[in-house]
Amino acid sequence: GAGVSQSPSNKVTEKGKDVELRCDPISGHTALYWYRQRLGQGLEFLIYFQGNSAPDKSGLPSDRFSAERTGESVSTLTIQRTQQEDSAVYLCASSLEGPGDYGYTFGSGTRLTVV
Amino acid sequence: DAKTTQPPSMDCAEGRAANLPCNHSTISGNEYVYWYRQIHSQGPQYIIHGLKNNETNEMASLIITEDRKSSTLILPHATLRDTAVYYCIVRGNSGGSNYKLTFGKGTLLTVNP
Lengths: 115, 113
Fold this sequence. Notes:
- The structure holds 2 protein chains of 2 kinds.
- Chain A has no helices and 10 strands.
- By secondary structure, chain A is mostly beta strands.
- The radius of gyration of chain A is 14 Å and the shape is globular.
- The model of chain A has no long low-confidence stretch (mean pLDDT 90).
- Chain B is mostly beta strands.
- Chain B is 0% helix and 46% strand.
- Chain B is globular and about 40 Å long.
- The relative contact order of chain B is 0.34.
- The mean pLDDT of chain B is 90.
- The chains are: A mainly beta, B mainly beta.
- Chain A binds chain B through residues 4, 31, 33, 35, 42-43, 45, 48, 50, 56, 58, 91, 93, 95, 97-99, 101-109, and chain B through 34, 36, 42-47, 49, 87, 93, 95, 97, 99-106.
């Protein structure tokens, strides 16, 4: 597709349930990021995938959070046993890597509300 | 990652130039300066980036000081649609986790009619 696609755009879930968020990056983009943005706050880095390298998971806030990416395609972010503090917009971005790249393209995000 | 410092907010009159400053005094030689903006309820949008030379594209100009410790993003003719939070980020291009973007709080630019 022409841009980064995220689904669902909105998700309301009950506390304690698991949720899965999906990101379709731009075709050919080797790098993929997940960020979280709480209401009125800046972006928090969660996880970074680059090609076949081991992902950088240093931003995941707890072991309830995990993410996978198959090759250079779709990525899923899974949050287990959701808590109210997980409510946020989850943003995905992708990019070509290396010198001369022109920045990252972000999706429109998934707004997660835990009730 | 090098840290950046930006004013929390700025105002600009519609049609005038908006000059957004950013300090990055600890930037290292292989780190680029990137600017993104985030309009309310949307994902961040890439604007421009540079290493040491000034850069211009259809959206903005980026002026980097000779010592690279600060930069200014210039929107030459601001419109109401330019109201957004503008983020200045420094990032390496040498591979590995240097590619990670670290967002600060940014500058909320409000363009007034």
